[in-house]
Amino acid sequence: MAPPVFRTENLTKVYDTGKVKVHALAGVDLELYEGELTVLLGPSGSGKSTLLNILGGLDTATSGRVWFRDLELTGMGDRQLTAYRRDHVGFVFQFYNLVASLTARENVQLVTDVSKHPMRPAEALALVGLEPRLDHFPAELSGGEQQRVAIARAIAKRPEVLLCDEPTGALDSKTGVQVLEALQRVNDELGTATVVITHNAMIRKMAHRVLRFQDGRISSVETNDTRLAPSEIEW
Ligand SMILES: Nc1ncnc2c1ncn2[C@@H]1O[C@H](COP(=O)(O)OP(=O)(O)OP(=O)(O)O)[C@@H](O)[C@H]1O
User: Fold this and answer.
1) Collapsing DSSP states into helix, strand and coil, what is residue 9?
2) Which residues contact 173 (CB under 8 A, 6 or more apart)?
3) N or C: which end of the chain has fewer CB within 10 A?
4) Average pLDDT over residues 18-37
């Protein structure tokens, strides 16, 4: 088996708010692999976003270790983490954060202009099914289309990992499925290791693996022998 893309060892995160200490991660050991689509499930506050933010170099652990391939993220300073994010990681969040005054193509171009080996913005937008909407502004696009622009923006630099925090959280079932189809296609065609946090348990059915969180720990790991296509998922 190929070595993992991510590996963590007894990862902990404690938020010290002065009055109380919140143990957001209480010892997480995991490995995530190339080409794998992993869904993270678990109740609110169980540590999913904290883990995603540490994997993506947006936050740092309190103790334990985390590696992206051979690169140890724990102990890196801000500049190194910024370079790591820029070179290797794509993020998709619940809210799309597109620039309202720029078209879909221009929003993606913001990233391709500063990336080392980007795809063309039109190519990234075609991968998420938005070829006919290249020159539309965000306000002229549906929520699902805007989220697909955000996915195109995240993948246009050809990141090795795509980290998604509630990517369908603001969408109804029909538009949400289109977003899941875009994520699936990126995972299939580019082999991007993809992590999706969701509160929608149905989405676990399209994953290769499902990690459930409880109180800052992984409480179970499931592997799907048969996966459902996004079009077979409804909520
Ligand atoms: N910046 C912070 N300061 C203090 N506590 C925090 C901070 N960020 C997260 N927490 C706490 O850490 C715990 C884990 O939060 P986290 O956002 O990782 O959970 P989650 O599983 O992603 O939840 P949700 O599904 O609601 O997004 C929670 O108790 C949360 O309140």
Assistant:
1) strand
2) 234, 235
3) N
4) 96
